[in-house]
Amino acid sequence: MSHRARDWQSHPPAIDAGYKSTALRGPTRPLIPLPQGTATSSGPVYGQDDVRAIDTDLTMNGRTNGEPLGERIIVTGRVLDDAGRPLAGELVEVWQANAAGRYFHDGDQHDAPIDPNFFGGGRSVTDADGVYRFTTIRPAAYPWGNHANAWRPGHIHFSLFGPTIASRLVTQMYFPGDPLLDLDPIFQAVPARARDRLVSRFDIGVTQEAFALGYVFDIVLAGGAETPFEGDR
Does pTM top 0.90 for this prediction? Predict the structure, then answer.
């Protein structure tokens, strides 16, 4: 990952009044820097051999007795450093709700159906051009208890690892034109000038005829065009 200083003006605050649960987990005292040791500089590591081709296809990797329900989409993009250079070998993980707006997790008690053929998780390693690519189902909006009649926009969570699993960044990708973005405290907590960096763009060139619409979401790790990340203060 890039060594350039982070652009904190592009990131949401650790505690935001609109996003109520941040008051329970955000730091209230200055952080204490710890010296970097083996765990942060060289390990533990993941093996690229552990990432299989099927891990990039969320429409296939969770099947039990049929195809998952919902609109198929392709999500791709590049992972870049602060100078716009592609970063190869980055582990990119995603997780998301299904086409009904429910996660395949016991903690999600939303009154929406679970899709037995879609567990909503995948992994990809960026190629020499910094490109990752997933085939998945477009996630739906879902209610959450932040405030009255609160609904999260459809989104996909992204986790990026550098050379070790100790170097991790987490963010979210949204879809263009979603009316819930203007009402979502999580999205609105991001400084206005950086919000568009979390919204993917539709791309007819990525779209596969008669199969799936395509979206592009580039992730920039530092610098003036830095993608906003969660919990990295």
Answer: no
